[in-house]
Amino acid sequence: MVMYRCSTSLKFWKKWISSLLEFDATPSYQSVRDAADNLKGIVVRTPLLESMALNEKLGARLFLKCETLQHTGSFKFRGAYNTLSRLSAAQKKNGVFAYSSGNHAQGIALSAKMLGIPATILMPEDAPEIKRTNTRAYGAQVITYDRYTETREEIGARIAAEGNLTLVKPYDNYFVISGQGTTGIEIAEQLKEIQAAAHICVCPAGGGGLIAGTSLAMRELSPKTKLYSAEPEFFDDTRMSLATGKRLPNEGNHRSICDAIVTPMPGEITFEVNKVTLTAGLAVTDAETASAMRTAFDYFKCVIEPGGAVALAALLSQKLDIAGKTVVAVASGGNVDPVLYSRILGGEI
Amino acid sequence: MVMYRCSTSLKFWKKWISSLLEFDATPSYQSVRDAADNLKGIVVRTPLLESMALNEKLGARLFLKCETLQHTGSFKFRGAYNTLSRLSAAQKKNGVFAYSSGNHAQGIALSAKMLGIPATILMPEDAPEIKRTNTRAYGAQVITYDRYTETREEIGARIAAEGNLTLVKPYDNYFVISGQGTTGIEIAEQLKEIQAAAHICVCPAGGGGLIAGTSLAMRELSPKTKLYSAEPEFFDDTRMSLATGKRLPNEGNHRSICDAIVTPMPGEITFEVNKVTLTAGLAVTDAETASAMRTAFDYFKCVIEPGGAVALAALLSQKLDIAGKTVVAVASGGNVDPVLYSRILGGEI
């Protein structure tokens, strides 16, 4: 046993001890930077695009951070791989469990496959077909539930306990948030490379993991940039919570085309970050989201899914005064069913 | 006058003399490298994407070079800017003229705008609406003609002569081909960055400018990569010409969804290059092209126009044996009307 310990590197034990200490800690710029080192060469450094024609139309300089081009078609791969790669050998052997409307599912499924970890995923019955199919294609076992009558947290906790699986929450997780934040490091670096500075950066928010990590990175690397979350109307829990300083749930029985981000309320850890780093939250209608998806098709040739397009929608529909400013919208995902996409292109929504 | 000459830099005169000498010369790796220096910071270094899910399905490693994300939505901006930026002050003042089915038009229009040059463009009446609208939006004057009864070369020569405009041909031009070739420099560099080496690289071919420039770059930087053109069936003049060693025109009165690349025969200068650098030409059906566009939507979240998808189509429909190989397809443009795109997503074509 002593020999075994001696043969294991100091780096391993440091990593192991820090993973125990930090797992429930609040992420920081440093944890996002560590994630960037961990993910180097693994994630796609997605492009930060601009369209001169659109800029002229808007009277502003708008950049689109295309996480649609990330592995699995969304930013979720960043946080998933960052988390799974840090599990212990025993955790990896037993396998992981996740609940997700689809993008976290795919991120976990691909990361698990790359790292040789068995994965079980709980998804809503009405998650887009493309998300369920892809999650299975990456080799994960998929279980479905009715998101309008059952609670994924309860079912998830039971399945994870029964199988001794490690639950990887979609946003309330130190390593997940830190991984998502590498998006922000890239944005800051890419702007610097072209000698640009952003006045405003807007990110879609479901549970708030992407905007939490991204805002930690941007606040450090581009402190003058004002940071905003974007959400669908009726699911603007982050906006309401930021306005009151308290975590508030969404109310009423509404539906939205933004399947990826119709979460019930902000995460605990994510809100700890976001209430400090964000200026405010913005909300957009489904019609504004659909219009932003058409703009992305016309000007950027990028397929964005509804939930991924809310930040662009907020900027295009002038929720903020962007005249003469340099602004960034994160396009967080592109996993949209072709039938819905065609309806949106055709102006039905 | 002498004082004026003395105050002008040596660099300027060297550039001017070389432009006179080289304008009708055959492009080379060196001219492509010069174009890359000229275009640094101007063009988008477009991403070279791969999808692990698609790779697994194909049993090959497939990279997609997304020139759909280039300014104006196609590679044409590279050659257009490279050419226009080298015109004399008098040429710039008088303005430029181009004929194009749409992508060269947009490339010229945006480049001219950036450089303060008046631009007149001749486009077919039936060019996609999006291409005509965008060309006008970039500030160019657009004139239309009937591509099935009139010859653009004749109309073009007359308009250019009458207005003392500099004609910038879409492919048979030293600086245009050299500019397009910067796509190939990026592919080779991007593959090297991830320690990958391509067995095969396929490019769409209309007049053959993109594949000529790209093949010059790849032959120098990645000499083991086999290079192929891809064309729609019935418009496979490059394939036929490569097979016989002589420039052959397309025959019959066919139509294709691939509006960007239904050129009548290979260019003179482009074929001088391509007959040396290419292994062979490939041809695909409209159905294979449409299927490739759907695959790009599903796996890459990239909007590719029909003419831009023929290289991907050739690889996906197994025109070559790609099993176990590393292959690159250039997606050369993304300017497709939303109605046609929706029909293709829906499987109508």
Q: In percent terms, what proportion of residues of chain A is strand?
A: 5-15%
CATH topology of the largest domain in chain A: Rossmann fold
Architecture (CATH level 2) name of the largest domain in chain A: 3-Layer(aba) Sandwich
End-to-end C-alpha gap of chain A = 64 Å
The 3D shape of chain A can be described as globular
Q: What profile does the largest beta sheet of chain A have?
A: 6 strands, mixed
CATH class of the largest domain in chain A: Alpha Beta
**Estimated helix fraction of chain A:** 40-55%
* SSE sequence of chain A, one letter per element: HHHEHEHHEHEHEHEHHEHEHHEHHEH
| Count of β-strands of chain A | 10
Helical/strand content category of chain A: alpha/beta
Low-confidence stretches of chain A: 1-7
**Rg from alpha-carbon coordinates of chain A:** 19 Å
Number of domains of chain A: 2
Chain-averaged pLDDT of chain A: 92
Task: Give me the side-by-side strand order of the main sheet of chain A.
Answer: 1-2-10-7-8-9
The largest interface is: A-B, 37 and 37 residues
Plain-language structure description:
Chain A has 349 residues and is α/β, with parallel strands linked by helices. The first copy, chain A, folds into two domains: 30-75 and 176-345, Rossmann fold (3-Layer(aba) Sandwich); 77-172, Rossmann fold (3-Layer(aba) Sandwich). Helices cover 48% and strands 14% of the residues of chain A. The first copy, chain A, has 17 helices and ten strands. Chain A has helices at 2-7, 10-22, 29-39, 52-58, 76-84, 89-94, 103-115, 129-137, 152-163, 174-180, 182-193, 209-221, 237-244, 268-277, 286-300, 310-316, 338-345, and strands at 48-50, 61-66, 96-99, 119-124, 141-145, 166-167, 200-204, 226-232, 280-284, 326-331. A six-stranded mixed β-sheet of chain A has the order 1-2-10-7-8-9, sandwiched between helices. A four-stranded parallel β-sheet of chain A has the order 5-4-3-6, sandwiched between helices. In chain A, helix 12 links the parallel strand 7 and strand 8 (226-232). In chain A, helix 15 (286-300) packs across helix 16. Chain A is globular, with a radius of gyration of 19 Å. Mean pLDDT of chain A is 92; it is low at 1-7. The A-B interface holds A 41, 44, 46-47, 49, 51-53, 56, 66, 68-69, 71, 73, 110, 114, 130, 134, 137-138, 194, 294, 297-298, 300-304, 334-335, 338-339, 341-342, 345-346 and B 41, 44, 46-47, 49, 51-53, 56, 66, 68-69, 71, 73, 110, 114, 130, 134, 137-138, 194, 294, 297-298, 300-304, 334-335, 338-339, 341-342, 345-346.
